[in-house]
C-alpha cells in the first residue's frame, strides 16, 4: 500500500505458519525452484570463509532459497483457499490458522459458546494445565526385545471427545455424591510406590508423578479423578471446591475432516496441510493473554521526546534500550482480540494423559514393563499387537486416531536393546547393529535434546582417564569431518562417560535487543551431556520409582 510517498511493508516470519525446514517443505510442496541443501553447509560458514562460500555456489543457493519459499507460500495459500476458502496470510501462526478454520467453518456459538472467562478463574485453571508425560522408568542399557510404540494423533483423538463450553457453575463446597465435570480443587492421597502414577505435579525438572503418602492439595481436571475412581486405582479424594461446565463433542467434525485430508490426501501438499492443522488445534486455546511480554519500538520525536514515560507511569516497563533516537522496550501487556478458551486446552491435555496412562496400565497389567514414555509414545518389552497379552485392541487399525503404531518403519519391529539416560535422552541401535560404531549408524534412532545429531564434526577426542568424548568445531570448510554422534556414544555414557560438544553463538552486548554488527560478538562454549535423572528416585539397579510426598517435601 502506497500512501503519501511511503511504502508500507509488513515483514512476517514464515516459520510459525509452515512449521518445517525449507528443505522438508521443498520436498513436500515441490516448488519450481527447489532448495539446494548440498551447495552450501551453512554451519561451516565463518567470518573468514564466507566470501569463498558465496562464490562457490552461494549465490545460486540463496536465489533458490528465496524463490522456493515464495513459491511454497503461494502453493500453500492457493490450497488453503481451495480447501477452506481461507487466506492463511491472515493468520500469524499455524495454531492460529487451525483455530481460524474451526471458528469459520465449524463453530456454533449459539449452541456451544466459548466465552471469555474471568482472569482470576483462569489463574486457577492454569494450575491444572499440564503438558505431556515425559518419564524414564528404567535407566542404562536395557536388553530386549524392545518395542517402541506411538499413539496415532494423540491430541486430535482427545479433541474428538466431549469438551467443555460456556461459563462454569461454581460449587464452593464440591458436589456430594458425584464428581462434577470441570475443574476440581482436591486433596489426593495414595497411588503406587513402585510403578508409574496418574497425577502430575510440577517439579524442578518438569512434571513428576509422585506417590502421595499424605494428602496433597492440587487443581485437577475432573476426568482424571473420574478415570481413577472408575478403574479403582489406589487413590482417595476429597473434593474441596469445583467449577462445573457443560460438555459436548463440538470439535469432532472439524478434527474428523482435517484428519481425513491428512489420511486420504491425493498430494503431499494436502497431506502436509491436513497433518499440520489437525496437530495444531488445541494449544492456541490455552495461550496466555494476561501480562504477556511484548517488544515495542518507538522513535523519539519533538512532540514525544521520551516514549518510555507512558510505560513507566503504568508500571508495565520491564526493560529498555536506546539506539540513536529509537527506544527498544519490553513491556507487559494484555493481548486484545485474541480468542482463547483455557478449559478446552486443559481438558484436551488431561484426556491425552489419561489415554497414554491407559496404555501404560494395560501393558503393566498384561505382565509387561514400561521403560520410557514421551507424550504419545512408550518403550516397552512386549509386542502390544500379540494376542497372547490380550491388549491387541490397541493395534487393530494403526491409521486411526488413538490407535497404536510401531515407531520403526523397517523390520523387525523390535530392537535387541535400548539405552535410556534421561528425559529426551535415549537411543536405539540400528536393526543390524554390530559392535563397530561405523556400521549402519544411520538406521539408529538417537534422541539427545540439545545436540545437533546430523552435524559432521571435524575433530573428536576421547579421554580415557577422564572418560570424556569431546566433539570440536571445524575451523575450515574442508574440515567437515567423518565424526558424528552414533549409538556407541550412548553406550559410553551409560558406562559413566561424559559427552561434550562445542557451539558458537552470537552474543549481543544489548542482550539480544539489537543485532547490530557493532554490538555482536562471537562466543564459543562447551555443552556437556551425561546420564542424569531427577524426575524420580533412581535405585541401585537403575530402575526409577516415584518420589513420595510426606506433607513437606518430595523425597
Q: Can you give a write-up of this model?
A:
Helix 1 (22-29) packs across helix 2 (50-84) and helix 7 (252-264) packs antiparallel against helix 8. The chain is globular. The N and C termini lie far apart (62 Å). It is built from 11 helices and 26 strands. 25% of the residues lie in helices and 28% in strands. The strands form 7 sheets. Strands 3, 4, 14, 15, 16, 17, 18 and 19 form an 8-stranded antiparallel beta sheet that branches. A 5-stranded mixed beta sheet has the order 5-10-6-9-26. A 4-stranded mixed beta sheet has the order 20-21-22-23, covered by helices on one side. Among the domains are: 14-90, no CATH class; 292-333, no CATH class; 424-532, no CATH class. It has 555 residues and is of the alpha+beta class.
Write the layout of secondary structure elements.
Elements: E1 2-3, E2 6-7, H1 22-29, H2 50-84, H3 94-105, H4 119-126, E3 134-136, E4 140-151, H5 154-159, E5 163-171, E6 182-190, E7 201-203, E8 206-208, E9 211-221, H6 222-230, E10 235-248, H7 252-264, H8 268-279, E11 292-299, H9 309-313, E12 317-323, E13 326-333, H10 342-365, E14 370-374, E15 377-380, E16 404-406, E17 414-422, E18 425-428, E19 445-448, E20 459-463, E21 468-472, H11 487-494, E22 498-508, E23 520-529, E24 537-538, E25 544-545, E26 548-549
Parallel strand pairs: 9-26, 21-22
Antiparallel strand pairs: 1-2, 3-14, 4-15, 4-16, 4-17, 5-10, 6-9, 6-10, 7-8, 11-13, 12-13, 14-15, 17-18, 18-19, 20-21, 22-23, 24-25
Helix pairs in contact: 1-2, 7-8
Amino acid at each position: 500500500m502506497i500512501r503519501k510517498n511511503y511504502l508500507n511493508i509488513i515483514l512476517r516470519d514464515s516459520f510459525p505458519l509452515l512449521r518445517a525446514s525449507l528443505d522438508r517443505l521443498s520436498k513436500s510442496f515441490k516448488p519450481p525452484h527447489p532448495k539446494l541443501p548440498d551447495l552450501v553447509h551453512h554451519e561451516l560458514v565463518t567470518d573468514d570463509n564466507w566470501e569463498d562460500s558465496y562464490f562457490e555456489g552461494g549465490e545460486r543457493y540463496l536465489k533458490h532459497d528465496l524463490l522456493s519459499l515464495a513459491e511454497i507460500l503461494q502453493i500453500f495459500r492457493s490450497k488453503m483457499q481451495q480447501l477452506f476458502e481461507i487466506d492463511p496470510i491472515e493468520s500469524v501462526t499455524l495454531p492460529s490458522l487451525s483455530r481460524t478454520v474451526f471458528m469459520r467453518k465449524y463453530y456454533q456459538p449459539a449452541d456451544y459458546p466459548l466465552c471469555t472467562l474471568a482472569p482470576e478463574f483462569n489463574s486457577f485453571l492454569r494450575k491444572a494445565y499440564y503438558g505431556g508425560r515425559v518419564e524414564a522408568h528404567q535407566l542404562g542399557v536395557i536388553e530386549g526385545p524392545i518395542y517402541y510404540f506411538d499413539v496415532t494423533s494423540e491430541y486430535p483423538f482427545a479433541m474428538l471427545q466431549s469438551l467443555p463450553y460456556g461459563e462454569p457453575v461454581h460449587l464452593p463446597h464440591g458436589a456430594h455424591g458425584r464428581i462434577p465435570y470441570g475443574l476440581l480443587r482436591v486433596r489426593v492421597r495414595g497411588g503406587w510406590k513402585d510403578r508409574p502414577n496418574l497425577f502430575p505435579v510440577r517439579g524442578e525438572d518438569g512434571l513428576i508423578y509422585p506417590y502421595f503418602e499424605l494428602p496433597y492439595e492440587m487443581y485437577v481436571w475432573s476426568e482424571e479423578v473420574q478415570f481413577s475412581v472408575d478403574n479403582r486405582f489406589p487413590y482417595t479424594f476429597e473434593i474441596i471446591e469445583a467449577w462445573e461446565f457443560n460438555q459436548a463433542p463440538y470439535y469432532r467434525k472439524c478434527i474428523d475432516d482435517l484428519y481425513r485430508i491428512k489420511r486420504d490426501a491425493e498430494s503431499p501438499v494436502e497431506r502436509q496441510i491436513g497433518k499440520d492443522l489437525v496437530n495444531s488445534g488445541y494449544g492456541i486455546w490455552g495461550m496466555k493473554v494476561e501480562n504477556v511480554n511484548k517488544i515495542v519500538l518507538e522513535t523519539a520525536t519533538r512532540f514525544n521526546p521520551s516514549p518510555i514515560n507512558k510505560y513507566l507511569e503504568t508500571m508495565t516497563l520491564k526493560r529498555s534500550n536506546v539506539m540513536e533516537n529509537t527506544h527498544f522496550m519490553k513491556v507487559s501487556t494484555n493481548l486484545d482480540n485474541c480468542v482463547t478458551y483455557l478449559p478446552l486446552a486443559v481438558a484436551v491435555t488431561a484426556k491425552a494423559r489419561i489415554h497414554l496412562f491407559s496404555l501404560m496400565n494395560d501393558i503393566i497389567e498384561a505382565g509387561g514393563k514400561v521403560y520410557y514414555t514421551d507424550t504419545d509414545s512408550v518403550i516397552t518389552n512386549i509386542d502390544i499387537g500379540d494376542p497372547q497379552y490380550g491388549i491387541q485392541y490397541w493395534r487393530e487399525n494403526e491409521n486411526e486416531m488413538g490407535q497404536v503404531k510401531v515407531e520403526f518403519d523397517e523390520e523387525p519391529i523390535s530392537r535387541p536393546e535400548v539405552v535410556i539416560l534421561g528425559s529426551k535422552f535415549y537411543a536405539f541401535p540400528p536393526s543390524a547393529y554390530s559392535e563397530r560404531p561405523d556400521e549402519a549408524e544411520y538406521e539408529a534412532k538417537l534422541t539427545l535434546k540439545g545436540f545437533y545429531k546430523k552435524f559432521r564434526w571435524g575433530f573428536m577426542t576421547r579421554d580415557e582417564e577422564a572418560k570424556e568424548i569431546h566433539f570440536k568445531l571445524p575451523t575450515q570448510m574442508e574440515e567437515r569431518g567423518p565424526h558424528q554422534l552414533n549409538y556407541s556414544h550412548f553406550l559410553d555414557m551409560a558406562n559413566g562417560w561424559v559427552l561434550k560438544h562445542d557451539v558458537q553463538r552470537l552474543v549481543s552486548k544489548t542482550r539480544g535487543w539489537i543485532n547490530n554488527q557493532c554490538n555482536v560478538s562471537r562466543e564459543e562454549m562447551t555443552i556437556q551431556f551425561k546420564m542424569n535423572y531427577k524426575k524420580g528416585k533412581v535405585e541401585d539397579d537403575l530402575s526409577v520409582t516415584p518420589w513420595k510426598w510426606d506433607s513437606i517435601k518430595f523425597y
